[in-house]
Amino acid sequence: GATLGVMGGGQLGRMFVHEAQRMGYATAVLDPDPDSPAGHVSHHHIPAGYADVDGLARLAGLADAITTEFENVPAPSLQHLAVARPVSPGAAAVAIAQDRIREKAHFTRCGVSCAPHAVLQEAADLANVDEDLLPGILKTARLGYDGKGQQRVRTRDELAAAWQAAGGVACVLEKMLPLDFECSVIVARGRDGLMVHLPPQRNLHRDGILAVTEVHEYSMPADVAEQATAAARSIAEGLEYVGVLCVEFFVLMGGTLVVNEMAPRPHNSGHWSMDASDVSQFELQVRTLAGLPLTQPRQHSPAIMLNLLGDLWFPDGDTPREPPWADVLALPGVHLHLYGKAEARRGRKMGHLNVTGADIDAVRGTADFAAALLGLAIPLSE
Ligand code: ATP
Ligand code: MG
Ligand code: MG
Predict the structure, then answer these.
(1) What is the ipTM of this complex?
(2) According to the annotation, is 148 in a ligand binding site?
(3) Ligand 2 centre from 1 Cα, in Å?
(4) Residue extents of the structural domains in the chain
(5) What confidence tens digit (pLDDT) does each residue in 10-45 have?
(6) What values do phi and psi take at 19, rounded to 5?
(7) Residues 5 and 66 sit within 8 Å (Cβ to Cβ)
(8) 330 Cβ neighbours under 8 A, 6+ residues apart
């Protein structure tokens, strides 16, 4: 049988591996961590760095096609692998997604508006920043996630200090926008250019980290959902993308849609699809990678996803305890996913809980109940 390879052994790689195995594939994971969540469950685990030539050669030797589970995989490594094997998404698309400056240029090229922003490459650029961009958020162009690498600034002095604190690396300053809510869309595009998508997801972040995703008929106005879907599809089309792509959006007070960023892989906000859609985002990843046909996924239940961060393991003090899973699992329509991480840490993504049910009232009731049992912050929605 065929073997599918993945760069990265985190939870996204693990869920990809599970899905690939369900569909009859063997798997190979490349991750320097000998103890990674995906490495544990994969047929093959290559404990090598992402730019290690021997490791890459071993991966290409084992796998018939290769994907990635995190956007910061070195693009040259993907390029290198692509000489030997089909790699999706490709190095060019990943290189754009891992650099906010190039990413915003791509969005603009596709006719999708992003937040007003300035590019800061060197100290001299600070003086040219338009006053209108303040207050704003300074984001490093590369390597940020979960709000890391971001600083809120109100004045030019704060901006200069923040840019210094970021180490003077390339950054973008984004105007702070008045958000009504946030949403994201997952699209999958095959090598033949055929594209399908999951319904738009409404996302609630806490402290820069995704906390709750809701997907149901009342989660956002229909015109916003349509616009976001069309924008995500044109962004993927413009990249000639192959694989699963997630595009995050802001919806401003007043209803204007603004694109935030994209991830060249399955996304935390798409985890609901594992239990409430006939095709999950990981199955889409397997299908695009293996060159299997894509069919439009059908959501068969309203869904609420609760992220389970390591904080839940520390309800009182520094001694971790296992959250009360049995109590939560006594509720109907609760689906628990844990990532097999050895150690709980505050802010660390340990798992998620999907709630499904006959209608959104039932789902919301169950989700509220589960949140209360776990000690998650309530309310679950804005
Ligand atoms: P991720 O883990 O999703 O990759 P990230 O570190 O790349 O996160 P962003 O998505 O850029 O960060 O921002 C994190 C959150 O901060 C957003 O989801 C939003 O809640 C808030 N935020 C970011 N930019 C703005 C903005 N220009 N105006 C208002 N809020 C913003
Ligand atoms: Mg990001
Ligand atoms: Mg984000």
Answers:
(1) 0.97
(2) yes
(3) 35
(4) 3-87, 116-175, 179-374
(5) 999 999 999 999 999 999 999 999 999 999 999 999
(6) -70, -40
(7) yes
(8) none
